[in-house]
Each structure stands twice: as structure tokens, then as C-alpha cells.
What does this fold into?
Amino acid sequence: MPTRHLIAVENRYWHYRQQGDITAETAIVLLHTSPGSSAMFAPLFAELGSLRPKMRILAPDIPGYGGTDPLPNPPASLQDYLPSFRAFFREMGLRQVILYGTGTGAQLAIAYAHAYPDKVANVLLDNAFHIDETERQAILTNSFPDLTPRADGSHLAKVWQMSTGFMQYFPWFMTDEAHRIGPVPTPEQTQQMAMEFLNAGVNYAHGYRAAFDHERAENVKRLTVPTTLFRWQGSAFLPQIDALIAEGFPANVQITDTPETLPQHYKTVAEGLVKGVKQ
It folds into this structure.
């Protein structure tokens, strides 16, 4: 079972979850999607623990999300996050990392491996996909409304609308059947998503927007480290994942199909993460 921690790095607090041998200089690092936190990885921690109980597993909250302080300046791109991650990994005593990311976390893993390839043993990507430039611009323009608190509470209604839409449509503002990705969520599911947006605050869009801008096939093609792209059959974004796969990759990028159900998906992901790791 992972334990939770806070650590100050460069005068900002990072919140992270960790299990296994905390003295190990190599760790599997799990990077979450926006606007969530490392809490999403509880099932994956359990799978990894059953396979490699002593393997060091580390899941930080991305700056500005969960319990980690935001960057000191608004990020212009994902590259602005990378020095902070490098400093955090140094503080953790890590010589090398195996990076797993989903959504925003997948794009951060790609960007980090570009910047520090000698520090990355493997990259494993979930819900990484390809969209064309027209769709990208529509998402960047319409997906991130202003959530500044208002006296009448109208920002809360907007958060609720977004949270409901995120689980039903992609992009969330295209509310027709052609863009449907899931059923109407329960109030409890909407509440959980809304709380993640509210926890991230008025700057909730920083990491999410930067990730969409980075969601390009050429960034995967430029990877030089061993890379696995998971084709999750149960993903709401399977058409976009297949669009990325159709772009073609160099030999260091492998495609792994995973079963539809989330437990079986995480089991396959965990097996991929520990494969070849020396303990």
C-alpha cells in the first residue's frame, strides 16, 4: 500500500505517493491525467505491489494539481514543467526512472524523455493520441472556460456542466451523439470530477492546455528511449489512439493491446512496467 508524503523542493511543496524500497535509485514513476491527482493510481499500485513488492513506485501530483504547489510562473508549454520534475527526482535520489503516464501524464512523460533521455529507462503511454490541427484549435479555444469565483456562484454551475460533459463527450463542449464517449455520469461521479477542477482552482487549465498542445504524433516519433504505447480497448479515446498508431513509429516504439475492463487493463500495464526491471 502506498504512503503519502509532502516534500519541499525549490521552495514549493510536492505531494506524492510511494511504495517499495524508498532507497532505490531507480523507480517506476506514475504521472496522472488532468485535473486529477495521483489518487487515481490506487489500483495500479496494488497490481505493481503484487508483482514486485520491493520495487520503488512513485506517483507525484503534477504541479498545480492534487496537493502539489503550482509552478512559480504560468507555464507556456509542457517544457516549463520539466526542470521542476528534474529537481523533484533529484531530491528523491533517483538516478533513472521508468515513466508511465496517462492523458496529461503521457505527454509529460514524452516531453521529459525528450529533455533527459539518459535519465529515462523506458516510457509507457496510456491515452496518448492524435488529433488534427483543426480539432486541436477548437479544443484549445473552447475547452477551458474561466472559473474565477463569482458572487452568484455561476462558476460552480459551469464546473458542474464541464464535469458532466467530460465524462460524456469528447471534446466535452460538443454535446452530440457523434462525440459521445460515455453514459450520463451519476451525481457522485460528477461531484468527484468537479472537486478536482475546484481543487486546481482558476489555473486548472495550465497543464491540460499544455498537454493538448503537445498531443502530436511527431513527438512520439522523436522518442529515442524504449517506448510502449498501450492500445486500451476500453478507452473512451480509442479512435484517437488508433489515429496515432496509424501515423507509424520507429522500432523503439511498440504497441501493446490491453483488455477492455479497467482491472485487466491495469494488470497488463503493470506487467509491462515491471518487464525487464532489475530488482
User: Anything to note?
Assistant: The two ends are 19 Å apart (CA to CA). Strands lie at 3-9, 12-19, 26-31, 57-60, 96-102, 120-126, 227-232, 253-258. The chain has two domains: 3-132+208-274, 145-203.
